[in-house]
What we know:
By secondary structure, this protein is α/β, with parallel strands linked by helices. 44% of the residues lie in helices and 11% in strands. The chain has helices spanning 19-33, 39-43, 50-61, 67-85, 97-106, 120-126, 150-159, 173-181, 192-195, 210-214, and strands at 6-9, 110-114, 135-137, 166-170, 185-189, 200-202.
Amino acid sequence: MGKIKACLFDLDGVIVDTAKYHYIAWRELAKELGFDFTEEDNERLKGVSRMTSLDILLEIGGVSHSNEEKLRLAEKKNENYRTFILKMLPDEILPGAKEYLEEMKAKGIKIALGSASKNAMTILDRLELTSLFEAIIDGTKVSEAKPDPEVFLKGAEALNVLAEECVVFEDAEAGVEAALAGNMKCVGIGSPEVLGKAHLVIDGLHQMTYEKLRSLED
Ligand code: BG6
Ligand code: MG
């Protein structure tokens, strides 16, 4: 790989902490279905699509439902989840995230979003970040979930850069795997134990710099 020309950002857990709202909404659904859902269980849902999240939840509760009923349950959870994200404000942007996006843009690095969420547009609008992204690939635009690299490959394509010229920022193991499967560099946001396959692991975008990005170049 040569020069890095683009950064592809996951949304949930990288730019904003939506996991707490997902948790409340899934826990309420679990309660209605008659079982507990812990914060530790919630870790298993990070980066995972809505329907796969539901499958994991139902497996934890030891219950099964028809496909039709599963669609209804997922819709119910999403309606509840949306009551939280519709109230989000720009002060919920994680430390350093907006500053880093702006700095990269100023340096001529292209910026895209690569998220599994079908609510990504709502969240970006609430955080007033939409205009910073040159391309937005979200859960409404992909057919394969992470760890499949589709979301990031589509991001690279939309930015008109090669996969080897991209760095992905991810907080979920499945997202790191997706980046690597797409032949991209990856910065993990979170713990090295979980994200050890990434080329660099940091606590948050407040720790990221242009120099660290350049150090990822071969
Ligand atoms: C990912 C989150 O970004 O989006 C997952 O990490 C979530 O927890 C997934 O399940 C799908 O989100 P949504 O908003 O389409 O239900
Ligand atoms: Mg994430």
